Amino acid sequence: MNVKQLATVLEGEIVRGTELEEAVGDLEKFLDARGAGQLLPSVLKVLLRKFKAHVGTELCRIETAFETNDELLKEIAKTLGATEYSSTTNTELIGGFTALYSHQLVDASTRRHVEALKTQLS
Known about the structure:
By secondary structure, the protein is of the alpha+beta class. It is 55% helix and 20% strand.
């Protein structure tokens, strides 16, 4: 097996639910038993590159208060580091937008501003 194949096997174990530490430990034992323990850092680097590539293609979910043109939606996604996006309309936002990307929520909605004002005034 080459380094890429080993990284794919490790990735498969993680996807199936094996804890990362356990999966890496098992791979380390496997490699050591074959006198190939020096490959582990290279396998982990390949796996990290795969993970970074996956994160980079994650979809940015944008919710706007009204229909918005594609150029603005693309700019919002690009600002967050996303290359792809999906959008929906939610009139409860009153105005503005929310965007969710890579576990980060940006709430630039008028509704949030109104709720913040209500809190300050009470």
